[in-house]
Amino acid sequence: MQDIRMPKHSSTNTMADERKIVLVTGCSYGLGCYIAKTFAADEGQRFKVWATVRSLAEKTRMEEMAGSLLNKAIYILELDLSKQDSVDAAVDHILSQDDHVDILVNNAAITLIGPLECLDFNRGRQVFEVNFFGHIRLIQLLIPRMKERRWGRILNISSLASVVSKESKELCICMIFSHQFLDDCLTDLSVQGSPFLDFYVGSKHALEGFSESIASALRPFNVWVSVIQLAGVSTEHPTNVLVHGQTEGIVFSDGVDEATGDMLKVWQGHLKEGMTGVQVQAPEEVAKIVLSVVDTERPQFRFQSSQGGNFIASTRYSDPSGESAVSSAVDIITTHNLTK
């Protein structure tokens, strides 16, 4: 691994010493780059940002966006969330330089698409390693100093999921477009159930539940945990969503029944159609929302990044039966003849 360490700050009371230390995951491409750049470019020069990439071979996009801020306000660090030794090493490196992290933005995620019975279980396990366990390990390592210092912000980037109702089709598909996905598949959906995205949705539900659990135990230490639920976010090459990397991301076996295959094709088309709808936000806008949450003195637990997202969340959380989401998804994927 390339040595990207910098000298420790001196004990002199400089502006650099007073900056909040920010760690952002998933900065190889997409939204993570914009979040890191927004913090680093803050007019008040309030932040020093550690922008992590899965491999240093993937740092080019972050370097380009950082520009003159590179190695001044943005420092790129290798961190593979699927490997505990990589997570531990990255945190050790940051703490050796800056002693603590004030703000953790868990943004990275990967996905896997296909009928559950056809998917490689180890690849499904990897989705949980990255989307859930990797982020939990980061939180576990960083909260002791946050608690000691009586200040911290933990922001877990999530996304609202697919189906609300047939009557609100333009708001049915909520996506975050990014390159941080298994086999470069560029679709990120979740929080609510979504057909054929079982491992991904499960990992996101797990992270939200975990976040809600730790939030109450950390607030007495002035450490605030928030979940930011995104609607559509357009970053690099949004037209490639559900197309790019498709052969790697969707795995069939010889035993797949024709009806299930047809349902998957219908769902893919539905997602792709939703991608062109309203409520798609620019990544710069979302990054500013993330910064505004950090700047809130007492941030609430759950935020939606848009009015459309707020509508979806209201629908989701006002239906204790869960039927509105499940039945709408069934209606969509069974628009063909299942008896053939």
TrEMBL record:
It comes from the Eukaryota. Keywords: Oxidoreductase. GO terms for molecular function: oxidoreductase activity. One of its GO terms (cellular component) is cytosol. PANTHER family: RETINOL DEHYDROGENASE-RELATED, SHORT-CHAIN DEHYDROGENASE_REDUCTASE FAMILY PROTEIN. Belongs to the short-chain dehydrogenases/reductases (SDR) family. This is Retinol dehydrogenase 8. It comes from Holothuria leucospilota.
